[in-house]
Predict the structure.
Amino acid sequence: MKLRLSLTAVILAGIAAAVVLAGCRATTRDISPDESVHYDETYDFSDKKQIVNDLVDSLASKSPLGRGEKRPVVIIYDVANRTSHHISTSGITDDIRSELLSRGTARFVNRVRRDTIQEELSYQYGGDVAKETRVKQGRQVGAEYMITGTLRSIRKKQPDQVRLKRRTMQYYSLTLELTDLETGLIEWSDSAEIVREAAKPFIGW
């Protein structure tokens, strides 16, 4: 009888160990970039896609980029991060530039690669490149408009009370501006907002 109980205990322990190991095993799955996935209330790639699309739709449909005439030359600067989180805003500016280029509504000065461009020009005029193949100096195009922006956030928690879950609300706002570099006037400005609420249990994994 004792032997049978010991054998049962060993089997049950083995099953429990297998369940624990299975739960600890890492799993992966492919997610479409168009799928909205949020693990908590904080900013993620789905938010970036949403706010970029909203603002590009607004910018590309209004004057001066939405005139349907020649494509204005634009320079885009980094979005200022005024949130309490470490967020790389270069992905926002990269996506805005790529989307406006694909729509054919603007041309962009390559601000990030200015030093590299200058290095290549110096090489071409250093004596090793045939004169007839050199690009002409002093013909770079100046920007007509400048895009700048600010990302802000506000986080609110429910007051401490007796409850099973605590709710947290996170607010994000991205504001962009298009400035005429000749006049200094803001020709366009708009904001995209995201508000998300999360409910987290006080006890859990």
The mean pLDDT is 81.
